[in-house]
Amino acid sequence: MDFNLSEERQMLQDGLRRMLVDKVDTKAIARGDTAWSAETWQALTEMGVIGALFTEEQGGFGGAGFDLMVVFEEMGRAGAPEPLLETLLAGRLIAELGSATQIEQLDEVIAGEVQMAFAHSEPGSRYDLERVATNAARDGDDWVLTGRKSVVTNGGEADQIVLSARVSGAVSDREGLALFLVPKGTEGLEIRDYPLTGGGRGAELAMEEMRLPGDALLGEAGDALPAIERTVARGSAAQCAEALGLMERIRDLTVTYLQQRTQFGQPLIKFQALAFRMADVLIEIEQARSAVINLCGHLDADPTTRELHVSAAKQLVGATAKLVVEESIQMHGGIGITQEYDLAHFARRLTMVEHRFGDALWHLGRFARLRAA
Amino acid sequence: MDLTYSEEYETFRRDLRGFLEARLPKRLADKVRLGQRVTKEDHEEWHAILQERNWLAGHWPKEHGGAGWDAVERHIFEEETTRAHAPRIVPFGVMMLGPVLMKFGSDAQKAHWLPRILNGTDWWCQGYSEPGAGSDLAAIKTTAERDGDHYVVNGQKTWTTLAQYADHIFCLVRTSKEGKKQEGISFLLIDMNDPGIEVRPIHLIDGGAEVNEVWFKDVRVPVENLVGEENQGWTIAKYLLTHERTNIAGVGFANEALANLKRIAALEHQNGRPLIEDPLFAAEIARLEIQLMAMATTNLRVVSAAAGGNAPGVESSMLKVKGTVIRQEINDLTRRACGPYAMPFVSEALEAGSNVEPVGPDYAAPVSGRYFNNRKLSIYGGSNEVQKQIIAKMRLGA
């Protein structure tokens, strides 16, 4: 039993924290002036941070759950909206399923030279991973895809999109899914991109008889769901770790504010009613940390165990995110909802954690169903 | 005990419904329904329409141009107008200053200012909070020093809602530093066009700019703009906060927000079925509806007592806490109901006529912004912590 970071991970954490401090222009993001910064991306790649998300065989130097945790917690602490999660999702799918030729592309992915996106969710799918209506049909050697993908993070900026489609079966069958590698500018692919609440950009993708060559297929046609679930579990772990960093940053901002702001002749933290509520926030953040540790430690467990931890962490982190956001804003008062104060960006970004891969309520139900099965 | 409205009230409700059907412009109702931003001109248009029936300030006495409504009629008005998606009445003149002038103003002040509120000549805003005086409102530092026939005002107000539209501001100012801090405050009416006033917008977390900083540098205000006695301002402020704040529970808003949530939950799908059929999600809606049904009756108990002549005291604070929390919880669940489509942040889509299409369904466009923006409900008008302190003092001997 050891809950300390290894020396390598400790160095990664220290380095990242030093590098990211003051790097993220939270005010510009909150104003909508920028979605993410190419300069920060450059700095991340120069540090080799992307390599920490992949195993040695894949060309990285980490890839375990706790590597993800270290990296994404620091991204969260800084409020960094750079699309690292998209590289993790798309890159891991290529690494796990790709042909020899496709895997060659991983070098530039890990070097951060290309932007990636994972296009899976659709207007009617909400958080259900098996629900895919986008259709892929064989035509000679080619594939022809028609359908829509919704709120694809980094979709408009990606050089390569890993995109899911259905080759057979009904819309919610577990069988019948396939993944494709779609380069930017493919004919028949229409993209509308837009800013996201909390930074970064999203995109709506419309495929109208989009033709792809046979070698665009990633892995076996029809059997992609287990890999998608495995990858989304990793993505959920990364996202939960990011949320944890955001929570701690918000906690620090709020505690400092309570110590400095004086009303009725004393600092707000001296009002027991507020101090007790802040103590609750601290307790709940530690609970969330433990849930994230549980998930990161079980990413390579059997699917049932892994998915239980996915839902446990997502439920707890989602619920805690709401508590942290709402209590912090309330204890700040009006300043807590102004765009020019750092909390605005952190609160928005933390809240949006619930809107990807499932919110607290959805995962509560899923956990109960998984336990009952 | 009788939970039904009298026939007189039901007649009023029918009359009101007919009026809203005939006179509320669809363009305005659509904006409100879709969560789009309502402009100054929109507000003015709606105020003028209401005033055709003396309903802009229906709760004012008839002698001052109101309709003489009691608390129940006022409640019915709020219920029906929110149901019809009418723009809210801008409260600063009608709900706040008007009643203050009727109670504390001189005859000359009443004769001058009250008609101008009703006919739209003046747009008022409220100069209360300051950077160092939030919950601790009596800590205000903006000074008004007597100089002949004028007060000279220096200082800064903040969180001033819609000051960018206003041509007048009613202010709490410090006229004395003697004694308790509550004892040196006065209530002053100031023309926003006076030299020395500067309005700076504060952008909020949802991208909108509804609040402002208002700066005063050597602003000269005629002494006849003092309301009540010098150093009586705290009494006036308290009167305004405790006596004139019906609809503090926001039952109408909450009803409308709940109906919107149910509509969205019926349109959104999860696992191939309407979200509203998901037992967990349905339970969350039910939990809020149960709370709201009870709060509506709590509100009516207070309204009914007020119509009978009892000024609400601690009940206002109870309704404020419960009402704001319920509305915030409905906003929270509405954001969840929209799933991933709560993520796009396309501010322009909230401007009617911008031609920028929302991403995803139109009902999803305002939900995140509204969730964040409405965190203000438990902060402004006396934070919920301040309300609990009032309850503790008045009821618990704290």
From TrEMBL, chain A:
<keyword id="KW-0274">FAD</keyword>
<feature type="domain" description="Acyl-CoA oxidase/dehydrogenase middle">
    <location>
        <begin position="117"/>
        <end position="205"/>
    </location>
</feature>
<dbReference type="InterPro" id="IPR009075">
    <property type="entry name" value="AcylCo_DH/oxidase_C"/>
</dbReference>
<dbReference type="Pfam" id="PF02770">
    <property type="entry name" value="Acyl-CoA_dh_M"/>
</dbReference>
<feature type="domain" description="Acyl-CoA dehydrogenase/oxidase C-terminal">
    <location>
        <begin position="229"/>
        <end position="351"/>
    </location>
</feature>
<dbReference type="GO" id="GO:0050660">
    <property type="term" value="F:flavin adenine dinucleotide binding"/>
</dbReference>
<comment type="similarity">
    <text>Belongs to the acyl-CoA dehydrogenase family.</text>
</comment>
<dbReference type="InterPro" id="IPR006091">
    <property type="entry name" value="Acyl-CoA_Oxase/DH_mid-dom"/>
</dbReference>
<dbReference type="InterPro" id="IPR036250">
    <property type="entry name" value="AcylCo_DH-like_C"/>
</dbReference>
<dbReference type="InterPro" id="IPR037069">
    <property type="entry name" value="AcylCoA_DH/ox_N_sf"/>
</dbReference>
<dbReference type="InterPro" id="IPR046373">
    <property type="entry name" value="Acyl-CoA_Oxase/DH_mid-dom_sf"/>
</dbReference>
<dbReference type="Pfam" id="PF00441">
    <property type="entry name" value="Acyl-CoA_dh_1"/>
</dbReference>
<dbReference type="InterPro" id="IPR013786">
    <property type="entry name" value="AcylCoA_DH/ox_N"/>
</dbReference>
<keyword id="KW-0285">Flavoprotein</keyword>
<keyword id="KW-0560">Oxidoreductase</keyword>
<protein>
    <submittedName>
        <fullName>Acyl-CoA dehydrogenase</fullName>
        <ecNumber>1.3.99.-</ecNumber>
    </submittedName>
</protein>
<dbReference type="Pfam" id="PF02771">
    <property type="entry name" value="Acyl-CoA_dh_N"/>
</dbReference>
<dbReference type="InterPro" id="IPR009100">
    <property type="entry name" value="AcylCoA_DH/oxidase_NM_dom_sf"/>
</dbReference>
<feature type="domain" description="Acyl-CoA dehydrogenase/oxidase N-terminal">
    <location>
        <begin position="6"/>
        <end position="105"/>
    </location>
</feature>
<dbReference type="GO" id="GO:0003995">
    <property type="term" value="F:acyl-CoA dehydrogenase activity"/>
</dbReference>
From TrEMBL, chain B:
<dbReference type="Pfam" id="PF02770">
    <property type="entry name" value="Acyl-CoA_dh_M"/>
</dbReference>
<dbReference type="InterPro" id="IPR009100">
    <property type="entry name" value="AcylCoA_DH/oxidase_NM_dom_sf"/>
</dbReference>
<dbReference type="InterPro" id="IPR013786">
    <property type="entry name" value="AcylCoA_DH/ox_N"/>
</dbReference>
<dbReference type="InterPro" id="IPR006091">
    <property type="entry name" value="Acyl-CoA_Oxase/DH_mid-dom"/>
</dbReference>
<feature type="domain" description="Acyl-CoA dehydrogenase/oxidase N-terminal">
    <location>
        <begin position="6"/>
        <end position="120"/>
    </location>
</feature>
<dbReference type="InterPro" id="IPR036250">
    <property type="entry name" value="AcylCo_DH-like_C"/>
</dbReference>
<feature type="domain" description="Acyl-CoA dehydrogenase/oxidase C-terminal">
    <location>
        <begin position="231"/>
        <end position="393"/>
    </location>
</feature>
<keyword id="KW-0274">FAD</keyword>
<dbReference type="InterPro" id="IPR009075">
    <property type="entry name" value="AcylCo_DH/oxidase_C"/>
</dbReference>
<keyword id="KW-0285">Flavoprotein</keyword>
<protein>
    <submittedName>
        <fullName>Acyl-CoA dehydrogenase</fullName>
        <ecNumber>1.3.99.-</ecNumber>
    </submittedName>
</protein>
<dbReference type="GO" id="GO:0005886">
    <property type="term" value="C:plasma membrane"/>
</dbReference>
<dbReference type="GO" id="GO:0016627">
    <property type="term" value="F:oxidoreductase activity, acting on the CH-CH group of donors"/>
</dbReference>
<dbReference type="InterPro" id="IPR052161">
    <property type="entry name" value="Mycobact_Acyl-CoA_DH"/>
</dbReference>
<dbReference type="InterPro" id="IPR037069">
    <property type="entry name" value="AcylCoA_DH/ox_N_sf"/>
</dbReference>
<feature type="domain" description="Acyl-CoA oxidase/dehydrogenase middle">
    <location>
        <begin position="125"/>
        <end position="219"/>
    </location>
</feature>
<dbReference type="InterPro" id="IPR046373">
    <property type="entry name" value="Acyl-CoA_Oxase/DH_mid-dom_sf"/>
</dbReference>
<dbReference type="Pfam" id="PF02771">
    <property type="entry name" value="Acyl-CoA_dh_N"/>
</dbReference>
<dbReference type="Pfam" id="PF00441">
    <property type="entry name" value="Acyl-CoA_dh_1"/>
</dbReference>
<keyword id="KW-0560">Oxidoreductase</keyword>
<comment type="similarity">
    <text>Belongs to the acyl-CoA dehydrogenase family.</text>
</comment>
<dbReference type="GO" id="GO:0050660">
    <property type="term" value="F:flavin adenine dinucleotide binding"/>
</dbReference>
